[in-house]
Structure formats: structure tokens, C-alpha cells
Write a structure and sequence with these properties.
CATH class of the largest domain: Alpha Beta
CATH architecture of the largest domain: 3-Layer(aba) Sandwich
Order of helices and strands: EHHHHHEHEHHEHEE
Number of strands: 6
Helix content: 40-55%
Strand order of the largest sheet: 3-2-1-4-5-6
Largest sheet: 6 strands, parallel
CATH superfamily of the largest domain: HAD superfamily/HAD-like
Structural class: alpha/beta
Distance between the termini: 12 Å
Length: 214
């Protein structure tokens, strides 16, 4: 695998930093608030409708917000990030900085379901220059969210390289890795101590990605 990879594609939340239960609680509450604002529903009805769809028929929470609010996905992403601030939970990460230093000869892309400007702000707090990444691909770029394959196809068109030259790194199998693998990309699950039946490789932390190429 390591001899073919030229491009690393990174999910953002829960991948570049360890999943934080408090942050993800804030994210979910923000999604509920966005839905309530657009629909006028009670919190109880909002939660019921959200979970009728999320991970049942729609994997992406942002796509659920889009459907329930009847707004474009990029607008849903912006709405969903109005009521929380991930920066409260983020600090400079010397281990992450060191890892990207070891991977500087690769091309890097962010492929996430959030808002590009907020991702760049968060990277600055982590100590990673946004210029590390050739492009940030979100619904603002391609109009859809993962697990729709459009973003993966977009990145391959940008790199001009075959699927097996790309490594998708994420913390969610169905959203991040399944669509990448279906296109022929290599896949890496991070922050998991349980070997994945889907990913090509499973790592206990994101910092271990550099060891794949040692």
C-alpha cells in the first residue's frame, strides 16, 4: 500500500483530533436548533424526526438537517455550525504537527462535512497551517456531503491520479471509508482499538498514520 499512495485525504472532526463527547453533544444540539428554527417544531419532535432518518436512511447528519429544513446541504452545514464553537475544545497539538512534518512529501486534502472557514480556524489552533492542504472539499465545494462519492471523484480529478494513489483517513467507516473503498482508494480507520472489517488498516490514534510510511 505505502508504495502506491501519493495523496492523503483527511476527514476533520473526530479524525484530526480525538473524538470529544462534549463537542459532539454540542454539535448535535446545534443541529437540533437549526431544525427547530426552520420548522418550528418542538425539541421533542425535532429529536424524533432527526433520529428517524439519521443512520437509518441517511448517514450524514448534515444531510438530515438539509432534508428536514428543506435547504441546500451547504446551507445546512452553515446553519448546523451557528450554535457551537469547536475551538473551545481544541489546543495546539505538537504530536499532530510532528506527524504532518513526517508526511510533508504527500499531497493533502481535507474532505469533511463542515464549513471551510471554520476548519481553517481550527487548524490554526491545532498548529497546522491551512496551506498544508491543497484544497478543502465540503458541500460548499461539491454540493453534497459524504458518503456521496462526488467529493472523492472531485479530488481524483484534481490530483489526476488513479484511485489506489489515494488514502482516505477517517473515524467513521460508513461515512468516510466505505465510499472511498468502493472507488478503489486505500482506507484507514483512526482512533479505534478494534480492527475494522472495512478499512485496509486500523490505527489507535491519528498520529500513527505516519508509521504507515516509515
Amino acid at each position: 500500500m505505502k508504495d502506491t499512495i501519493r495523496v492523503c485525504i483527511w476527514d476533520f472532526d473526530g479524525t484530526l483530533y480525538k473524538p470529544n463527547p462534549d463537542l459532539f453533544r454540542d454539535v448535535r444540539e446545534s443541529e437540533y436548533r437549526a431544525i427547530m428554527k426552520h420548522t418550528g417544531w418542538t425539541r421533542e419532535k425535532t429529536i424524533e424526526e432527526f433520529h428517524t432518518l439519521h443512520k437509518v436512511t441517511i448517514q450524514s447528519a448534515t444531510a438530515v438537517v438539509s432534508k428536514l429544513c428543506n435547504i441546500p446541504i451547504a446551507a445546512a452545514a452553515r446553519e448546523s455550525e451557528k450554535y457551537f464553537d469547536r475551538r473551545k475544545y481544541i489546543h495546539r497539538d505538537t504530536r499532530l504537527i510532528g506527524m504532518f512534518g513526517k508526511l510533508k512529501h504527500f499531497r493533502h486534502f481535507i474532505f469533511a462535512n463542515g464549513v471551510i472557514a471554520h476548519h481553517k480556524e481550527t487548524l490554526e489552533l491545532l498548529g497546522i497551517p491551512p496551506s498544508t492542504f491543497e484544497e478543502f472539499v465540503t458541500s460548499e465545494t461539491v454540493g453534497v456531503t459524504k458518503p456521496d462519492p462526488a467529493g472523492f471523484v472531485y479530488i481524483m480529478k484534481k490530483t489526476g491520479l488513479p484511485p489506489n494513489a489515494h488514502l482516505m483517513i477517517g473515524d467513521r467507516e460508513l461515512v468516510d471509508l466505505v465510499p472511498a473503498k468502493a472507488l478503489g482508494m486505500h482506507t484507514c480507520l483512526v482512533w479505534s482499538d478494534t480492527p475494522s472489517a472495512i478499512a485496509d488498516v486500523t490505527l489507535p490514534t491519528v498520529y500513527n498514520v505516519a508509521t504507515l510510511f516509515a
